[in-house]
Amino acid sequence: MSNPYRELFKAPGAAGFVAACAVARLALPMIGIGIITMLSQVRGAYTLAGAVAATFALATALLAPRISRLVDRHGQGKILPLAAGVSVAGLVGLAVCVRTGAPDWTLFLFAALAGSLPSMPAMARARWTEIYRDQPQLRTAYALESVFDELSFIIGPPVAVGLCVVLFPEAGPLGAALLLGLGVTAFVLQRATAPAVQPREAGREASVLSVPIMRHLTAMMAAMGVIVGTIDVMSVAFARQQGLPAGASVVLSAYALGSCIAGLAFGVLKFRMPLARMLAIAAAITAFTTVPLLLVGDLLTLSLGVLLAGLSFAPTMIIAMAMVEGSVPGRRLTEGLTWLVTGLGAGVAAGAALAGWIVDHRGVGAGFWTAVGAGAIVLLAALYTARGAKPATAAA
Q: Among 47, 59, 161, 245, which has the highest number of CB atoms less than 10 A from its own CB?
């Protein structure tokens, strides 16, 4: 029996851009948790740590679609090195400010500059679409990319936390900067698989958010991001409360592991159910699996709780990406895919900031209510999306 994932790599150049992207995409999961760990060690305040991490995530959410629009217009090779260079400079500046005890406002400034990080998962998906457009292999490729996203969240957070704890507080963000620079450089050198720049229409084009389903999906992903941001902050705070600060990396990896396992299985299954209905089911699972987080009492139960909560993440992301691919023009695909990542990033920013405030003012035990509330919003947004989906988009 053939392996559908192995079949993907028969396309010339596929292995090269996937390997390069694997290095570059580690930066995103490392930066947020690296900032939180770094500042909680040096400044000792979760409110500040969560706010600076939220600034980075929000800047990424605002800038990534614009960077992707420039990529669609001018090509990956011209835009990605510039965007990544600004992000690396911002991370280095942030680390220097923390090391020298610079004022708090400088932390927010350099965190915002670091937010020029390009959406590498969207860039990789655009290359897969160029190779397998309108072919069955494309859904498998999207599933594989979601698994790679989750693997980055399995590997990235423990690496960032470990660097900060074992070496020095600034080592996590600096390590992310190094990986970003190396990965993007290798990625843009893979020119054979780069999507062709398609002619743009005359005049100013409206944002892909003018498509109603894009707004609904982006809102849903924002709510999912709140869950992720909450788990990021709560894992660090809960592990420190238990006297095992390095245990946060285990908790974060458990969430990504659950999503990774579910994504691998989802990518090879065959469904005849409409995408809109599948989205509603996945969102319902997301909502209900946040409730056990209210019952955790130690790092083991927390790890099991986030493992369960992560099972629906990758399938939901795969379904949403497939709905985007069928809803926006091909020349705007990178921008459309990036808006989902943007929604996720905005939600991470809100979740990290809100969870940090709750930990400082209401205690660790109250923080998980943020995830439960966000889960309910995920379900409502998905039901609204499914209700408004066109038949052509709704069909699997």
A: 161
User: Which stretches in the chain have pLDDT values below 70?
Assistant: 1-2, 44-46, 134, 136, 153-154, 198-212, 267-271, 325-332, 349, 386-396
Query: How far apart are alpha carbons 310 and 262 in whole angstroms?
Result: 8
pLDDT at residue 329 in the model: 60
Whether the Cβ atoms of residue 53 and residue 34 lie closer than 8 Å to each other: no
* Residue listed under structure tokens 């924002």: 222
pTM of the model: 0.69
H runs (alpha helix) in 101-136: 104-114, 120-132
Q: Which of 229, 241, 236, 238 is CA-nearest to residue 353? A: 229
Question: Ramachandran region of residue 201, left (φ > 0), alpha (ψ -120 to 50) or beta?
Answer: beta
The candidate with the shortest Cα–Cα distance to 350, out of 39, 50, 150, 111, is: 50
**Cα(197)–Cα(31) distance, integer angstroms:** 31
Residue type, 256: A
CB 360 within 8 A of CB 45: yes
End-to-end CA distance of the chain: 24
Alpha carbon of 16 to those of 116, 192, 291, 354, 387: distances in Å?
Answer: 24, 10, 41, 40, 40
Supply φ then ψ for residue 37, to 5 degrees.
-65, -45
In this prediction, residue 271 carries a pLDDT of 66
Please give the residue range of the domain that contains residue 155. 13-194+209-394
Residue type, 283: A
User: What are the tens digits of pLDDT across the range 355-376?
Assistant: 878 887 777 777 788 888 888 8
CA–CA separation, 64 and 62 (whole Å): 6
b/e code 8-23 from CB counts within 10 Å (16+ = b): beebeebeebbebbbb
201 part of a folded domain? no
What's the total number of domains in the chain? 1
Specify the CATH number for the domain of residue 127: 1.20.1250.20
Residue 193: predicted pLDDT:
78
Q: Considering the domain boundaries, does residue 4 fall inside one?
A: no
DSSP letter (8 states) at residue 167: I
Q: Are the beta carbons of 252 and 232 closer than 8 angstroms? A: yes
Query: Which residue from 268, 260, 272, 263 is spatially nearest to 2, judged by alpha carbons?
Result: 268
Residue 3 is assigned to a structural domain of this protein: no
